[in-house]
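Why do we care about 3D structure at all? Because function follows from shape, and shape follows, mostly, from sequence. That is the central idea of this module. The next example makes it concrete: a single protein chain, its amino acid sequence, and then its structure expressed as tokens.
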Amino acid sequence: MHRVAVLQAMWYTVTNDIKAKEMIPLLVKADKKWDYALGMIKVDGLEPTPEMKELIKKEKRGEISMEEVKKALDRKYKMKP
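And the structure:
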């Protein structure tokens, strides 16, 4: 699976899945959610792009929202017909 797809899947799980919403607070504080997600993909030997790393930094600092991260990923990786 492409590393961006993995990050998008993890973002979806962390932000939308009810079970994940119940479990993530037990595992990871809110300010560490990206560290957790990145650690999970690094286990598979994957690394996010520099652009993704910048989006993560901005979201962590509160400069952009998770919705803006999603929109940026959708714009960059949306499949063209």
